Amino acid sequence: MSNLIFYAIAGIVVASGLLSLTVRNLFHCALFLAMTMFGVSGVFLYLNSDFLASVQVLIYVGAVTVIIIFGISLTRNLMDDRAKAMNRQLLFAVLAAAVLTVILFAAIHQSSFVTQEHPMAVTLGTVTSDTQSMTAVEAGASPVFQSVGYLADALLLPQNGFAFAFEFVSILLLSALVGAIVIARKDPS
Amino acid sequence: MNSIPLVHFLYLAAMLFGVGVFGVLARKNAISVLMGIELMLNAVNINFLAFARYWNWNSLTGPVFVVFVITIAAAEAAVALAIIISIYRHLRTANVDDAHYLRG
Amino acid sequence: MIQYSWLIPAMPALAYALIAIFTRKSKTVSAIISILTMGACFAISVGIFFELIKLDPANRVITFGATWLQIAPWQANVGVLIDPLSVNMLLVVTLISLLVQIYSWGYMHEDERCGTYYAYLSLFTASMLLLVVSNNYLQIFVGWELVGLCSYLLIGFWYFKPEAANAAKKAFVVNRIGDMGFLMGVVTIGMVFQTFDFAQVKDMVTQGMANGTYQGAYIAGIALLLFCGAMGKSAQFPLHVWLPDAMEGPTPVSALIHAATMVAAGVYMVARTYVLFSADPLAMTVVAYIGGFTAIFAATIALAQDDIKRILAYSTLSQLGYMVLSLGVGGYTSGMFHLTTHACFKALLFLGSGSVIHAVHNQDIWKMGGLSKKMSITTLTFAIGTLAIAGIPPLAGFFSKDAILDAVKDSNIWHHEILYYAAVFTAFLTAFYMFRLFFVVFTGEARDHHAYDHAHESPISMTLPLMILAVLSVVVGWLNWPGVDAYSKFVSYGEAHLEGASNIWQLLAQSWLSIVMAVAGILLSAMFYYWKVLSAEKMAETFKPVYLLLKNKYYVDEFYTWLVDKGLFGLSSILKWFDDEVVDDGMVDGTGWVARKMGGLFSLTQTGYVQNYALVVFGAVAVIFLLVSF
Lengths: 189, 104, 630
What we know:
The structure holds three protein chains of three kinds.
Chain A: H1 2-20, H2 26-46, H3 50-75, H4 90-110, H5 130-138, H6 148-156, H7 163-184
Helix pairs in contact in A: 1-2, 2-3
Chain B: H1 6-26, H2 30-54, H3 61-91
Helix pairs in contact in B: 1-2, 2-3
Chain C: H1 7-23, H2 27-54, E1 62-71, E2 74-82, H3 84-108, H4 114-133, H5 137-155, H6 162-193, H7 198-211, H8 216-233, H9 242-245, H10 251-261, H11 263-272, H12 274-277, H13 281-303, H14 308-328, H15 332-360, H16 376-390, H17 396-410, H18 416-442, H19 449-454, H20 460-475, H21 486-490, H22 504-510, H23 512-529, H24 536-542, H25 544-551, H26 556-603, H27 610-629
Antiparallel strand pairs in C: 1-2
């Protein structure tokens, strides 16, 4: 059952992703993108990452999509909806994307992941609630997925080696923020 | 056994990545290109978590990188939109095609 | 005294710098500096000479020096080599230069650039002395080129005269042709022997020839390259054309060039590098024949010239031919001896002609005449010089010329009898044209009365050198008085080669042919130009083609002009066409065209569309994947 739900989510992810890049109306595109992000967060749940799933929803659906909708509305006034949505190299783009996907599929298919049995291949119950996730942990999963705390430790405790990068990313975020304002600001002249 | 094999996650990520590539290459509008990039990043995130989940159980590196990727994606989206708005202000369009000053 | 020998080239160079920088404006100070310096150089040279003859003949080679440049594996040294040969040259150069500088005071003091003139004279002499005392091939080359430069400056001293400027350029260019060969020879020596030092090269050649390391022809090749330089400097055919034109310079400069500082350099250089020449008969034969040919060739030209200095210039060519011939047939000592005696009487003749020109302000002998009544000292000294160059015993020319003829007769090179009779005939021609000059200029009636009336004897500063040189022209030959042979014992290559005659009568008896030829030349000349029983005009009319040929110097200049005109300029126009059409239009423009077109071609890839670039990136990734997986 839960497997079926996963495949349904996966189908939604791919389909809405495709739609978000093919429909002509940019607002629809943004909405399909939000849907894709929701689907991806569902996939994250299947990977025992409840915290990251919620972060995914918060950031992508809540922030990035909203920013994109802002951008669309700021640049839309002159956009002609009847204009072609695709550029001249559409055919080659489809070809390149398809070939890359096929190559990736072939690579995955040939890899050892197909047959390999993984020791931590745990059985999952329903993924709709935290308790189910906890169940999975009790069934032998690593405690690292249990809560936010482990991730926080990993990111912030110096002995784990990511503390500096974490702080640095925060600086990057800040400078991106400032930079975005500077770039988007109206030219004084 | 109702567990989902690792490769299915990988297939999903591959498809999502391919869709993103298509968007980046084919869409006219710069914002759509940005969306394609976001899809590619999400595909990568799925891969990170899938491998973390199935491959290297005791390491938190995968989730940690997902955190970084999401952060940087957010920053990138902000800067990219700022650039798009700036271009729009100069060219009165957000089409990538129309910004081709570098033509030889 | 020998340890101060480095001062000999250094002092005139210093004098040059002093005059050129400080005292150029003052004629008197400049002249005094220059003359005193040269006097000091002469004094040192005499001191060195007396110190050297006190030494045992085996120890008469003294050399010292310092490193100039170290370019591994080569080492360029600067140094001094004192041996009988260089001392001989030092005495000749410093003495002639001293007398010429004294003489110049009388001749040039009215010229406003007199100070500059003395500066050039000092530099000229310094260069020649640097060349003479050199102990290696590189230094001799430096002096050699400096001499060439100074000759250019002095021949073109009156640069406002187009003839002088052209003559200076001609001298420089013709010398460059020879110097090219000389430079190649020097570089070859450096490559072959890894040293430039005379003594080391000499040892290596001697040993190498003995044990067969070097082929004779190989060494001869180097020698002939060096000889190219000597042909340029010593004005041997076919590079002789600059010397007759060099008389455009002030007459004392001509004296200096012809007697001591310039043309002697070539002969001296051959003597200095004699080990290379004597290594192979081929080199010697070439040298001998070029010398012999130049001797007779120049003598015939001199028969038909009208310019007093031009006649003397061709006589110099002829006498230089003698010297080169002598070196070529192995007469090392006689060649150098003739250089020494010739320096005296040729300087005398040139300075005498300068005195004449100073008096009549003309150089055409047919506008002179009867000058003996006005200029007794000049006439007397000139007569001595003429007798000396004609080879009349017991004057200097007789001894040295006879030694050369003797050396030619005794040599064993290819058909030396041709050279011998050519040399003897040249002696006849020399006597003839020199006495023609003498009779026309100094005897008979005045032809240009205006010039004649203003003619006067030159001042003491000019006649004093003439008298000194006249005495020397008589006595220098006695250095090799038969039975004494002082010169031969002093300057010799290998074992001293003594003349066969043991006393003067034997010598006179031996050389009856050359004496008869000289006297015959004088008598014939007197019949034409003194007694006037024969008419030169009629002769010239009868043999008009020959006369014109001689008068026009065998058309060598015209031939060179034609050669340059047709050959060089023709080649140049072909090259110009090639340059215009192929290099410019084809290659230069073509390169630009190709670059532009290639740029246009490749700029097609620079579409400016970012997504094109992204497509290329992803497409390339796909292609690489496919390539790797198959």
